[in-house]
Amino acid sequence: MNNAREIVVSAGGNFRTWFRNLSTPVKIGVVIGLIAHAVISVVILVNYQKIISYVVSVSDEIRQMKTKGILIFALLIGIVSFPPLIGFSSLCIIIGIVYGYQGFPLIAITSSVMSTVALCSFKFFFKDASQRIIDSHSNLQIFVSVIKDSDTTFIQEVFVLTLMKLCPLPYSITNGGLGCVPHLSPLAFFLATIVCSPKYLIQIFLGIQLRELGGPDGDNNQKLVHFIIILVTGLSFGTLSMLLYKRLQYKFQQRSAGQDYVPLDTV
Description:
Keywords: Membrane, Transmembrane, Transmembrane helix. Helix content is 78%, strand content 0%. By secondary structure, it is mostly helical. α3 crosses α5. It starts with a helix and ends in a 10-residue tail after the last helix. 27% of the residues are buried.
């Protein structure tokens, strides 16, 4: 509980510091964006049944497309694998709505391949852009400093990358940012992405629950149960991911500072 409170306080402090450093026009834009987000959220909450029912009806049409639908989702996953694009988690949830757990191989295979393609693209062709990504994302820098360690073995590299992928770090930003690491093995990155791919079952599960929530069957009590399951699952996964990230960040900072050296395999 104390760790969770520290995370919330730290996040709030980081946001205030970030906001104060913005120029006035950008501050105005951020405020307008937050207000728009609040309004959209209220509209969604009021009309969520109609919205989800529409999404479910569209998902049925996509599923009937068979191979074409799968290729469309594979293409979309490939596109959002490159920074600065976003939307990977939303795509996973939508795939969960459309295909259920049968969509897991599509996500696992396509994301692993396209993440590695994105990494190699930035590693060999856009290294300067990759370095700028790392410079502007302090939450990635501590992981990069460990991977850059010349004493890191291939197995340790896979281990650290797997832990990194389990943390709540931006999907596409991570793919591109790691391209600046000189000796990073694309094979290690690919294996780490495959190993941590079961975490996408969480998004698929959320998609399945959303489908049940928007379906015509079931009474209000059943729909309430699905809604509670969605909230609890999302909050639990987010909290556990953030706690893992903070713990790893602390251990890696200790390791980088040379204080009470922490072997990678004991993190």
